[in-house]
Amino acid sequence: MWKKLVRNPVSLLGLILVIFFIFVALAAPWLAPPRYPDEPYRIPRYGWSSTPRPPSPEHPFGLTQGQYDIYYGIVWGTRTAFRVGLIVVGASCLIGIIVGSVSAYYGGRLDEVLMRIVDIFLSFPFLIAAVVLTTILGKGLDKVMIAMVAFGWMGYARLMRGSIMAIKQEEYVLAAKACGVRDFKIILRHILPNSIFPVLIQASMSLGSVVITASSLSFLGVGAPEGYADWGQMISFARNWLLGTAGNPLEYWYTVIYPGLAIVLFVLAWNLIGDAFRDILDPKIRA
Amino acid sequence: MVNYIIRRLLLLPLVIFGVTIMIFGLMQLLSPYQLVSTYIRSPEELRNQDLDALVKKYHLDDPFYIRYGRWLNNLAHGNLGWSESANMTVNEAIASRFPATLELVLFAVIPVVFGGILLGSFCAVHHNDPYDHAARIFAIVGWSLPDFVFGLIVLMFFYGVLGWFPPGRLSTWADQIVMSKAFIRYTGMNTVDAILNGNWAVFWDAIRHLIAPTITLAYLWWAFIMRITRSSMLDVFNKDYVTTARAKGLPESVVIKKHVRRNALIPVATVAGLMVLGLLGGVVIIESVFDYKGIGLLTATAAQQLDYPTVLGTTMFYGMLLVIINLVVDILYAFIDPRVRLE
Question: Which positions 94-123 of B are in contact with A (Cβ < 8 Å)?
């Protein structure tokens, strides 16, 4: 599988981009030394005027509304993106795996109840559900993450359940049961290792879309607090500066394009890899 | 078919029960004092009484099952509370904003669905050609573009540089005509009302404001529909009846149009429900970007101002809307695919 990923130019590009972003996230303290070492995520300001200033040698990507340094925000925003993406995907995947495996293994009435709960959670558009819960909890990045996990686990639960249903009938599970192995141990030792892969792949592919949603919430103004290094917020700063001045309609292009490019490339990287995965794993399309 | 519809309708109360439980559950995260705002009908109520009295008045300190019953009763009477951000009751706000959103979605859905299906079948027919690769890259990029980034770039280019498609719903002059007494509001949808009133200037102005959001929605959703149509058509290409059709000597275009595409559209119809979910969510962002005064913008501004009643009320509305849309999609699906209704 690894070989196939590297051989395909499209997924190779994705891989290179992901490695690049991991590098930026790890090297953030060297790429953009923080002005406030205790709060590295606070973007330094270089003045109080609201009008953005174009790129210059000191500020390679320019200063956005409120004189926040765009370069600094993007570099540290990479860390925010990874943190939000990994926490949300990890937590919702874990909940999904637990609910899905319990539901599939025990079946019967418990399964019925759990799956109806899944249906209820699925009856709202994900973005709107996330907005509502974030609002109710009060704004903030941590609340965004809680809200996204609360409404993000259902897909994994369904996938896990389906995958276990298929494996439950296998003879080695029956054999373990006949030997009197405890339920918990059967799930952990025999069923999970054989059914978890589709879920993990799905999880790795959804990292990009999770980052989109989180930055959408920041864009709407319920996510990261002002001045926090977050791509979505950097773009919301740009909203008032789309039009430029009379003679030069694209005067403030850097306020949208740089943060926008960061998000697009990040998400693109994960989607390229995901697309290749799908082709590798789906024999129908391969043939 | 009738049996299937009846069975599906019998499930409806259960689903609605689920939606209301969810919203009520979310409300329980708020304190009784915050909850008061979802019960009152006008701001005067807040000014004239102290909060404790209001909590008493609406029995917000009762056990939850009693409150749930009373809340349902309240809902059934269409009372969703007072919207601070819209300065009217929540149901008035929803009623006044919904036609705008409906107009946008209806305007966008046809180019989105047909464009996506055409692109997808084009890719499947040219499987592994340079065309296919180009279209796939186009789709992956579309799928990776966050709607707010793409929307802002569309706005910057088509409004800032070219001046073609301004944000908002209408230009100021058109807005004045629409607000005047002589212009009768039949549906609240500007394009439809303009046609009914025979005012073509307003009609074109409304269209001009719809194009940019539609471009944004369309590009993002083409990617999605295209991908599903493509893989589903590739799947059908391997079926025996397609081989049979080819063996009979049918021209390839007939095989593709009549045998492959029709059967390949079944899975596409299944994801229609999913697409509606995404469109409704996307509308919140798109309307904020283009300052389009629909229900999505209502939710977004309310969320920024922590206006709970509006956020909860609109969510309730989205939930109910989805229940109805899913019902329609399921019935249509059973109509297209006989295997479903005979199960």
Answer: none
